[in-house]
Amino acid sequence: KRIVVLISGTGSNMQAIQQACENGKVAGKVVAVISNKASAKGLEKAATKGIDTEVLSHKEFDSREAYDAELKTLIDSYQPDLVVLAGFMRILTGEFTRHYEGRMFNIHPSLLPKYKGVNTHQRALDAGDTEHGVSVHFVTEELDGGPVALQAKVPIFEGDTVEDIQARVHEQEHRIYPLVVNWFCQERLKLEGGRVTLDGEV
Ligand code: GRF
Pairing state of beta strands 148-155 and 131-138? Predict the structure, then answer.
C-alpha cells in the first residue's frame, strides 16, 4: 500500500512507520512526506531515506479551504491508499477529512476522548491523573474526535515532568502507530458505518 505522511515537526512517528515498512513489519511504503513547515526536522530524515518530500506552507493561502484544496491535490498526486497524520499541526476542513474518510489516521497524545487539542501532558499532570496515554484514530471532521483504532496507556508517577511523560508516550506512539498502519495495509482494519472493525488476531 502507498502511504503519504503529513508532518509539521520532528517526524519521529513518520520515521517509526518508515522503518517498519523497510523492515517488512508494515505491508506498505512511505511514498511521500509532506510538511506545512519548511523547518520540519522530519523532512531531512525522510529525504535521507530517499523519500519524496514536499513543503506546502499554509502562509501562502488566504483561507483554510484554499490550503486544504491544494494539499489534497498534492497528496492525491501520489495516489496514496493511506494518509497518515504524524504531528501535523493543522485543523482540517470537513471537505478534506471527508475526502479521506476511512483512509486517514491521526495520532493524539492522550487517552481520547480525554484531552482533545493541545498541551495534553500538562493537562493530565495538572488534573493529577495517574494514567495517561496515546490514541491512534481515524480522522473525521471533529478535531481529535474520530473513531479510535488503538490506544496505549502509560503511568504518571509522582514528581514527573511534562518531559518525562512525553518520553513515555513517544515510546508507545512508535510502537502502536506502525501496528495500526500495518493492520490497515493488510486490509484487516476498517472504518465501517462509523465504527472500527479489526479482522484476526491483535
Ligand atoms: C506526537 O507526540 C503526536 O502524538 C502529536 O505530535 C507529536 C509528533 O511527534 N500529534 P513527532 O513529530 O512524530 O516526533
Answer: antiparallel
Residue whose cell numbers read 500495518: 182
Query: In the prediction, which pLDDT does 202 show?
Result: 80
Q: Give the pTM.
A: 0.97
Structure confidence by residue, pLDDT tens digits, 38-85: 999 999 999 999 999 999 999 999 999 999 999 999 999 999 999 999
- 107, 120, 132, 176, best to mutate for ligand 1 pocket (most atoms within 8 Å of CB): 107
Domain ranges of the chain: 2-197
178 lines ligand 1 (CB under 6 A): no
CA-proximal residue: ligand 1, atom 6 (nearest): 87
In this prediction, residue 201 has a pLDDT band, given cuts at 50, 70 and 90, of confident
Does the domain formed by 2-197 have CATH 3.40.1550.10? no
The atom of ligand 1 lying closest to the CA of 173 is 4
